Amino acid sequence: MNPDSILFALQEQNNFRSLPSLQHSGVFVYENQHKLLNLASNDYLGLNVNSAFKEQFLTSVRSQDMLFSSSSSRLLSGNFDIYEICESTLSSLYNRQALLFNSGYHANIACIQALCKIPSTFFVIDRFVHASVIDGLRLGKARFKSFTHNNMQELEQILDENTKKFENIIVVSEGVFSMEGDFAPLQEIVALKKKFKNMRIYLDEAHSVGIVGKGGLGLAAHLQFVESVDFLLLTFGKAIASVGACMLCSTKMKDFFINCARSLIFSTALPPINIAFSHFVFTKLDSFDKEREYVSRLSAYIKQSLQKKGYEVLGENHILSILCGENAQALALASQLKERGIFAPAIKEPSVPKRTARVRFSLHSALSEEHIESILKAFV
Fold it and tell me: Are 125 and 137 a contacting pair, CB within 8 Å?
């Protein structure tokens, strides 16, 4: 086995990856003893660096939840009561049945693959959906077609061409897209569902739960479309500052996933302490509206300031991407920023399409005015 040719090709394309060696200190990271403001964290509400919040959790957590392993899958002996407590809380918040998974990747790959088992099912996906959706489709040997990002005219055309061919058509999109930083046109997607009666909606809210809308329940809740979304995926490793994920769906589909979602069936469940923290965050989520509003304001300010400097900037809220073009150009900008105290690694092909390499900022509420000015000063 010799991977040399593959590794060499990646190096030639400026696409070779390596793991950074970092030490974390609040909103900063240290790389080779060089202090850098961290703009590569998805801790949008700053909960991971909020010592008082973490202390509040630790003083309230139940002793039976202070376990660092479940030691089993949930279908065997790993179904501690904190899982059901957390699912019950999420079900109450969204008025849907909740089912926990170990991560957003585990949830997407397993739920999509499971849905592929249902006869006469066809998927229509936004071209920019997460890799875990693509992997689930491939594992499930799905019949699917993609549409240009957020292009509702193209989506409607695909639906029109296939609605009579299949019993079920599942449209997959995201609440906030992780690379473009923009919102799904959910109102228009829901309108199409009313037109095409066999259409279902699968919405990945990984980058919107916690940070979008009053109460932080995500885009679907903010627009009052939760009832219209058949499969609503939340992940906990970003704004929730925890680990894990949750699928919100009907009672029948929850039973289906329990029986057919392989990553749930064949994985050791997350430690109870992690589930307890996720539950704790959701019970406090509505108290962070000021932080959400602050992130939205500072995002608009940074975007406008960079555009005035001549940069092309994507993003509508807490994720901003400075477009560079080729991988080498994105690497050069990331290096320039690092020299000036900003940690924002380049995002390269194939994570994004060819000639759209970029530097991405994940903004969060722990950033001060001084931090913001240091970001802007790092650009020529």
Answer: yes
- Report the phi/psi class of residue 23: left, alpha or beta, with left for phi > 0 and alpha for psi in -120 to 50: beta
pLDDT tens, 163-179? 999 999 999 999 999 99
Q: Say how far apart CA 183 and CA 315 lie, in whole Å.
A: 9
Q: What are phi and psi of 123, to 5 degrees?
A: -105, 140
* Domain boundary assignment for the chain: 3-51+288-378, 67-283
Task: Tell me which residue of 297, 214, 216, 175 sits closest to 47, measured CA to CA.
Answer: 216
Beta bridge partners of 202: 172, 231
**DSSP annotation string for 160-186:** HHHTTT-SEEEEEEESB-TTT--B--H
Report d(CA 380, CA 378) in Å as an integer: 7
**Coil, helix or strand for 103?**
coil
Task: Report residue 213 as tokens.
Answer: 């809308």
Residue of 231, 219, 223, 107 whose CA lies nearest to 168: 231
Tell me, what DSSP letter sits at residue 322? Answer: E
CATH class assigned to 3-51+288-378:
alpha beta
**Hey, CA dihedral for 222, 223, 224, 227, is it positive or negative?**
negative
Which stretches of the chain are assigned E, i.e. beta strand?
Answer: 23-25, 28-31, 34-38, 97-101, 121-126, 143-147, 168-174, 199-204, 231-235, 245-249, 313-314, 319-325, 342-343, 346-347, 357-362
User: What is the DSSP secondary structure assignment for residue 352, as one 8-state letter?
Assistant: S
**342-379 tens-digit pLDDT:** 999 999 888 888 899 999 999 999 999 999 999 999 99
pLDDT at 298: 95
CB 230, CB 204: distance < 8 Å: no
CATH 3.40.640.10 applies to domain 67-283 = yes
Could you check whether 3-51+288-378 and 67-283 share the same CATH topology? no
Q: pLDDT for 192-221, tens place per residue?
A: 999 999 999 999 999 999 999 989 999 999
H or E element, residue 335: helix 327-339
